[in-house]
Design a protein that fits this description.
It is a single chain. It contains 5 helices and no strands. It has about 150 residues and is an all-alpha fold. The protein has one domain.
Amino acid sequence: MTDLTSGIERLITLLGGWPEHFKDEERRYGESLLAVLRRDKVLDEAVFGLVVRYATHRAAYDRLSAEIANEEFEATASNYLSGKEQSRAFHENKLLTLERELLATPYARAKNGLDAQTTFMDLLDDQPPEDGGGGKVMPFKPMAKKGRA
């Protein structure tokens, strides 16, 4: 388990780290989603940005849900939702969109033309050759052109 945790922490560091405002709850949601995306090998820098947004909205949704459960508010004909319930509905809609984008099945990704996902994670442990790119683009390193040093 510590190997998986250290691998996730290393990956987070390579992708730029969590935002400064993240608390433990946001980190927990983000790390659990990163573990799934890493296992499916569908993780890159752009997807990490979506994971950060997902973790933010999920933590806000859970905080509002706890506050609403303790609040005594009754809907009337002129007032259907409290302000907190409206905010929670906003976060829920954002979560549904992000979940659909992040956790789509391979069939849904192929249908949308995204069947070829980036696979730079397989190359993270490989060291780039000393004489240039060699026809492969290595992550975080520009490809060298032939005949140029």
